[in-house]
C-alpha cells in the first residue's frame, strides 16, 4: 500500500524537509492551466534538489521543454532534502510513501498468487504440479520464415518443420 504525496513550489520558494519515512518522488509538473498562469508567455521553471552533499538541477520545465518530467527519486528515513524552484513557473512534485504490510505471514512467507515466496528465496507451488514436461518453441531471428499477410498488413510466421524441443 502507498500513501500519495504532493508538494507545490512557487517560483523562488525553498522547501526543506527531513524525511521521516521512505519517500519516492515520481513526477514534476509545471503549472500551465490558463486560469492559473497570468503571463502571456509560457512559464519556465528549474527544479533544484539540494542535499547535504550536493545541489543538482533535476529538470527544466517550460519553453521548448516538456511540461512534466518523470522522476524516480527515493529518499530514506532521516535524509534532509531541499527543493527550490528557479524561474517563473509553479512546480508540483508528486510521489508516494510506501506503507509496510501490517500483516505477518508464517515463516516469512509472502503470498504471490498461487505461489508462496519464502524469505530464503525458494518457491513453493500450491495446487498444480509444476514438474510436468514443457514444450518450448524456438524464436527465429531470421526474416526468411516471416511473411507479410495481405489481410490487414499483419506479419505471420510461415509454416516450417516442427522444431520444438522437449525438456
From TrEMBL:
Region ranges (Disordered): 132-167
Protein name: Putative FK506-binding protein
InterPro entries from the UniProt entry: NPL
Biased composition (Basic and acidic residues): 153-167
All residue ranges annotated as the Nucleoplasmin-like domain in the record: 6-96
Biased segments, Polar residues type: 139-148
